[in-house]
TrEMBL record:
Protein name: TonB-dependent receptor
Compartmental location: Cell outer membrane
Signal peptide segment: 1-27
Main location as per UniProt: membrane
PANTHER family named among the record's database cross-references: FERRICHROME IRON RECEPTOR-RELATED (PTHR32552), TONB-DEPENDENT OUTER MEMBRANE RECEPTOR (PTHR32552:SF81)
Residues of the TonB-dependent receptor plug domain: 52-163
Highest rank taxon of the organism: Bacteria
Family: Belongs to the TonB-dependent receptor family.
Length: 786
């Protein structure tokens, strides 16, 4: 099936949706409408509760809905949840950096993502009970929960701005079941068709033991053309067709360079030796192989020609690989008066990439240090690794008439590693030939960087709820943590003999602090709840371990960074009446000692700095309901997130980073979400389901900065999706369209002033780029259940 045929089919389907929704006869034939998200049972409070009964703003998306919508990645999923913003970096950088923003709590540039930063994300992510950001494929999920605001009194890893939980389906005891799914898709701009497939098996062994296995493969051909890539010799050096001293170079084009190949697997074993004891052991693995960036260049190349369509101006390919492994043992023991839960987990998340840095060298004036070598190709080879062991214990009381409680203890031993090896490919050969002084330049490598960090975090936390009356609850929560960290950093500029002596820096830090939470709720109706919450959030500090003596010394003020904290005030009402479910809240956040990932001014060490204050105020509103069989949901969020104090660098130069009143990056003032679905019973165990959804966000800013080199306005955009599923018994066929109107959906930018072309110094490519959303995608998917 061609792209044009698929697009025509989807357009006709959308017309059919509109016709069906206006037909009273069709409205009476609905047999398979989606369940209300408000009635999804979640464990966000560490007890099984409906979202409508939880006294703060929580959203939940069921795994069946995620699958029915053919949700492709984390960015698409989170865009469907009201008030959640995300920088969409594509598959190449999706797993490197957690870019989720809730209630505007973010100051980091959207241009980050090529390397793992030291500061933890303001939003914590969990896979079951393991605090892990892995960007696993969204396969065989029970549900996804999004908790807004600090969560340190219920979750061991804490959270500054919110928590996202990915809850996997457990093995089902006493039942054999399975599913096979296969799909084809075409993305606008691609020269080929992608495919994906999943196999899920649930195998019971007796009545008390079961194994569940998931295997997935994604193979997407890419859309981005790298149109002026250097042709390289067998040593990876740009070819010099007229000799090494001549200025000439040879270029070629690589079509659909950003291919995506992913393998994902999971196996879980569940043993229930008695009705009071339950064990689940889960292993997850994912491997990503990505050929380049899904990011396009808007400007001109060095010959004055514009880049068009899905073209990238890098002079080299930018592949990446990633591997994630995690093992978790979760045990639940019913003690009668309470449930004791133990979560023991380990994970290893590592990756590497090659990045085009030539545009950065050109715009920063660095190429003059290399005597304007005529074929500049600056490669940044980066890697990262995050390994952790986590143990969490919780005791959750059974529902009581007067008091309920949750108490827990948390321990994490985490090792982080980051590296960068930068090369100006071919420079040594050119230098030796041009100067006749072969001993001065040692190699093509001009930067060597290693960062080794160790964190140990211990915390006790809990909440106590007093049932003042049958309809009024008062909850108090507290967390006390103490952590230790150490950082060892090495750096050298090895390219010239005179600069090749290494610098090492080591620095330990420690901190401890209590946090508190208070919540008052009133159940004014059987399905009606009003609440008010005050909660403190915290993000750990650490050390940058930059050298303060020697050739590569920085000012001592860059040596460490401290925790940043915020206070979240929230009041809301939620409930259901007459078939309409509603949720409305207002919030105000006061954030201080803000952590910003940045670079030192002298030698470009990766560091975190504190500075400034910020606030975020707004409202969040969602409704969900049915009209004659049509199931719909609408959400609106207003966020005003801004600096409330000037942000200065910590060194004596006291450089102004951001101004009081500046909008925080990645935070849109307005976000609107909407979805609808409708099912027809066609008889003979056959049904037809129509669905559609849309997302809109207003303009955002790219970075906290006083310079338009980094801080630019990114226009607002909307994305619309639709799909049709025909199901007969255990067989189903789905046709779907993503981003039907092909919006660019830019959520980040590397500007030309930062990484653009400069033919005057021999750079004819262009490293500037826009971080675009997935273009229009048309797909066909089939599945069989048994």
């Amino acid at each position: 099936m061609t792209s044009r045929t698929l697009w025509t089919t989807t357009a006709l389907t959308c017309t059919g949706v509109l016709a069906a929704l206006s037909s009273p006869v069709a409205a009476q034939q609905r047999t398979d409408a989606a369940a209300s998200d408000a009635d999804i049972v979640v464990t966000a409070t560490r007890r099984e509760e409906r979202t409508i009964d939880i006294p703060y703003n929580i959203s939940a998306v069921g795994g069946d809905r995620i699958d029915a919508n053919k949700t492709r990645d984390q960015a698409e999923l989170l865009r469907s949840i009201p008030g959640v913003a995300v920088v969409d970096r594509g598959a190449r950088n999706a797993g490197v950096l957690n870019t989720v923003t809730i209630r505007g709590v973010n100051v980091d540039s959207a241009a980050l993502g090529d390397y793992a930063v030291s500061a933890v994300s303001p939003v914590s992510t969990y896979v079951n009970d393991t605090p892990l950001f892995a960007a696993y494929l969204l396969k065989d999920l029970e549900r996804v929960e999004v908790l807004r605001g600090p969560q340190g009194t219920l979750y061991g890893s804490g959270a500054l701005g919110g928590t996202v939980r990915y809850i996997l389906k457990k093995p089902v005891l006493g039942k054999f079941e399975g599913r096979v799914t296969a799909g084809l898709s075409h993305v606008d701009g691609s020269g080929s068709v992608g495919y994906d497939g999943d196999v899920i098996l649930n195998i019971p062994i007796g009545d008390r033991f079961a194994i569940r296995m998931v295997g997935s493969r994604q193979h997407y051909p890419g859309i981005t053309d790298y149109v002026n890539v250097y042709t390289l010799d067998k040593n990876g050096i740009p070819v010099a067709p007229k000799g090494v001293l001549a200025p000439d170079a040879e270029y070629h084009s690589v079509k659909d360079a950003d291919f995506v190949h992913v393998w994902y697997g999971r196996i879980a074993a569940r043993w229930q030796p008695s009705d009071a004891v339950d064990f689940t052991l889960t292993y997850n693995h994912q491997s990503d192989d990505v050929g380049g960036r899904r990011q396009i260049t808007r400007g001109l190349n060095g010959w004055g020609q514009p880049y068009t369509g899905y073209q990238n101006g890098s002079v080299q390919l930018e592949p990446s690989t990633r591997h994630v492994d995690s093992v978790a043992l979760e045990a639940n023991v019913d003690l009668g008066f309470a449930t004791l839960t133990s979560s023991t987990s380990w994970y290893d998340h590592e990756g590497d990439s090659v990045s085009e840095n030539t545009g950065f060298y050109a715009q920063a004036g660095f190429l003059s240090f290399y005597y304007n070598y005529p074929r500049p190709m600056a490669s940044a080879v980066r890697s990262y690794r995050d390994r952790s062991f986590i143990q969490e214990l919780r005791l959750v009381s059974k529902p009581g008439k007067v008091f309920d409680y949750v108490v827990g203890a948390y321990y994490q031993d985490q090792t982080l590693f980051g590296s960068q090896d930068s090369y100006l490919r071919g420079f040594k050969n050119w230098w030796d030939a041009a100067t006749g002084m072969p001993g001065v330049v040692t190699s093509d490598q001009d930067f060597f960087y290693r960062r080794n960090e160790k964190f140990r975090d211990r915390a006790i936390f809990g909440e106590l709820t007093w049932h003042v009356t049958p309809s009024v609850d008062l909850t108090g929560g507290a967390r006390y943590f103490w952590n230790r960290s150490r950082n060892n950093t090495q750096m050298v500029v090895p390219i010239y003999t005179a600069l090749s002596s290494p610098t090492n820096a080591y620095f330990p830090t420690s901190e401890d602090k209590p946090l508190f939470k208070g919540n008052l709720s009133w159940k004014f109706a059987e399905r009606g709840l009003a609440y008010a919450t005050v909660s403190q959030g915290y993000r750990r500090g650490g050390s940058n371990a930059v050298p303060i003596v020697g050739r590569y010394a920085e000012d001592p003020s860059w040596q460490t960074y401290k925790a940043d904290t915020l206070v979240n005030y929230e009041a809301g009402v939620k409930g259901s009446a007459g078939g309409l479910t509603y949720n409305l809240d207002v919030f105000y956040i006061d954030w201080k000692d803000i952590q910003l990932n940045t670079l030192t001014p002298n030698w470009g060490f990766y560091v975190v700095q504190n500075g400034g204050k910020a606030s975020s105020a707004g409202l969040e509103a969602q409704i969900e309901g049915r009209i004659h069989g049509l199931h719909y949901a609408l959400g609106y969020t207003y966020v005003d997130a801004k600096l409330t104090r000037n942000f200065y660098s910590p060194d004596p130069s006291h450089v102004l980073i951001g101004r009081d009143g500046d909008q925080l990056p990645g935070s849109a003032h307005h976000i609107i979400t909407g979805s609808a679905d409708y099912s027809f019973d066609l008889g003979d165990d056959t049904s037809l389901t129509l669905r559609g959804d849309g997302f809109y966000q207003s303009s955002t800013r790219n970075a906290v900065s006083t310079s338009p080199k980094y801080n630019v306005r990114l226009p607002g955009f909307s994305i619309w999706n639709a799909g049709v599923t025909l199901r007969k018994g255990n067989y189903a066929l789905t046709i779907y369209g993503k981003n039907l109107f092909n919006a660019a959906g830019v959520t980040g930018r590397f500007t030309e002033a930062y990484m653009g072309t400069d033919p005057a110094v021999g750079y004819y490519g262009n490293g500037s780029k826009d971080l675009i959303s997935l273009p229009r995608t048309i797909g066909l998917s089939a599945d069989i259940r048994f």
